[in-house]
Design brief:
The protein is elongated. The protein is built from 6 helices and 4 strands, in the order ββββαααααα. The chain is mainly α. It is about 40% helix and about 10% strand. Helix 2 packs antiparallel against helix 5 and helix 4 packs antiparallel against helix 5. The strands form 2 sheets. A two-stranded antiparallel sheet has the order 1-2.
């Protein structure tokens, strides 16, 4: 029977085959304790105590509204134009890839100058012959950037294991 846990840092669901005490989230690399309070909640008692038991039971903590200025961490945003941990927006990178992908502007935005120069030189020297190929690659990359999560975008395009991220 699979056990699911919710990461208190990024909010993603982690599914494990067997229950464990400590998990490292595969999405944000945060370690958290999964100890589950097996006692049923006491009804009619202290509301604050019930809330704490519920938080322990499900392995998450609700953060009060207030954001970073009060020391609380905001849950990850599903906004495609929101900046990620690196300060790069996948929405802006996707639009640059779709509209200016033939000359590699999206690579310059992501801080990858080598692939950006390769796309730029290939488009300029070939007098547009390779520009069709690079624009199709940019279009595909832009669509992929719009459809992936911020964490996938960061791993694939901002902090990749390779120096020339294509697909």
């Amino acid at each position: 029977m699979a056990t699911t846990y919710k990461c208190p840092n990024c909010g993603n669901t982690v599914i494990l085959e067997q229950p464990v005490e400590t998990i490292t989230c595969p999405y944000c690399n945060t370690s958290f304790n999964t100890a589950i309070n097996q006692q049923p909640p006491q009804f009619g008692g202290n509301q604050q105590q019930y809330g704490q038991q519920q938080q322990q039971q499900y392995g998450y903590q609700q953060q009060p509204y207030g954001g970073q200025q009060y020391g609380y961490q905001q849950p990850p945003s599903n906004d495609v134009f929101a900046e990620g941990p690196s300060g790069k927006s996948r929405g802006i990178a996707a639009l640059l890839a779709i509209f200016l992908g033939a000359i590699g502007i999206h690579y310059f935005y992501l801080g990858k100058t080598t692939p950006g120069i390769v796309f730029l030189v290939a488009s300029l020297i070939s007098c547009g012959i390779l520009a069709a190929v690079t624009s199709i690659i940019g279009l595909i990359q832009g669509i992929m950037m719009f459809t992936m999560s911020q964490q996938e975008f960061e791993n694939k395009y901002v902090n990749p294991a390779v120096s020339f991220p294509l697909f």
